[in-house]
Amino acid sequence: MSTAKTLRILQLYPNEMNIYGDRGNVLTLMRRAEWHGYTPEVVYHHPGKPFPKDIDMIVGGGGQDSGQEKVEDDLLKIGDQLHSLADGNVPMVMVCGLYQLFGRFFKTADGKTIPGIGIFGAETHAGPTRLIGNITLDTPFGEVIGYENHSGQTFLDASVKPFGKVLKGAGNNQKDNFEGAVYNNVYGTYLHGSLLPKNPVFADELLRQAALRKFSEFTSLEVDDSLADQARLVARKRPR
Ligand code: GLN
After folding, report:
1. Is residue 1 pLDDT above 70, yes or no?
2. DSSP characters for 206-227?
3. What is the tens place of the pLDDT at every residue in 36-91?
């Protein structure tokens, strides 16, 4: 279906990279797009398949190291297309495993190096302990709340902007207090949860960026976020 206000959302590798409810990010963008008067259309990219055209937003999730190995060859093949969409300001949100592979590489605990596509000037090395638990961030979109579970510790080049500062939790690497990375409208983060249902301000920002790019304006409607607000209150009180 195609209307003047259609937003085409691409989910990358839904079978291999989709853990801790990351699919909820796609569902949230679909539902909120509808609430704001847009028509969402969701398409998928699977390893070895042609990369879909006319994409307005891209969502990718986390996965085990083995899942990352399954998509590595294909990701390198579609890397140029992802770079040109990133340079063309397509909003993207990449969680955990795909965040790592949007950097230069992830070196796993087994000593394997899984190459990434380098949209983020960042590299990731497996650390001695998994970083697990509830996490809150201070970001330009207010307080962002989620859940992290990763062995990889990510270090950003000095020129790369983080997504936020860690208020509670580990974040990129436990050391520099940064979480995630940003390039144009591309956001990488370790936050599962799912991320977007509990963080509607950030979800709407992604929709705003997509609508501005496609229609030169974003027309938002009133949305009742009382359930999301309650979820945020509960999540914020959870122990690490
Ligand atoms: N396998 C990666 C790691 O452990 C990513 C984990 C994830 O996506 N949750 O660091």
Report:
1. no
2. HHHHHHHHHHS---------HH
3. 999 999 999 999 999 999 999 999 999 999 999 999 999 999 999 999 999 999 99
What is the domain count for the chain?
A: 1
- With beta carbons less than 8 A apart as the criterion, state whether 148 and 135 touch: yes
How many C-beta atoms lie closer than 10 Å to residue 163's C-beta?
24
β-strands 122-139, 105-107 pairing: parallel
Annotation says 83 is catalytic: no
Sign of CA dihedral 188, 191, 194, 197: negative
DSSP string, 37-106: T-EEEEEEE-TTSPPPSS-SEEEE----HHHHHHHHHHHHHHHHHHHHHHHTT--EEEETHHHHHTSSEE
Identified catalytic residue from 36, 45, 96, 150 = 96
Output the CA–CA distances (angstroms, integers) from residue 29 to 26, 89, 111, in the order listed: 5, 17, 36
Of 71, 96, 195, the residue with max ligand 1 atoms within 8 A of its CB, to mutate for a pocket test, comes to 96
Tokens 């050391």 locate to 175
Is the C-beta atom of 173 inside 6 A of ligand 1? no
Give the Cα separation of 240 and 236 in Å (integer): 10
Cα 152 to Cα 99, 138, 155, 189, 216: the distances in Å are: 11, 21, 10, 12, 38
Which atom belonging to ligand 1 lies closest to the Cα atom of 99? 8
> Residue 207 is part of a domain; what is its CATH number?
3.40.50.880
- Domain span at residue 22 reads 3-237
Does residue 46 carry a catalytic annotation? no
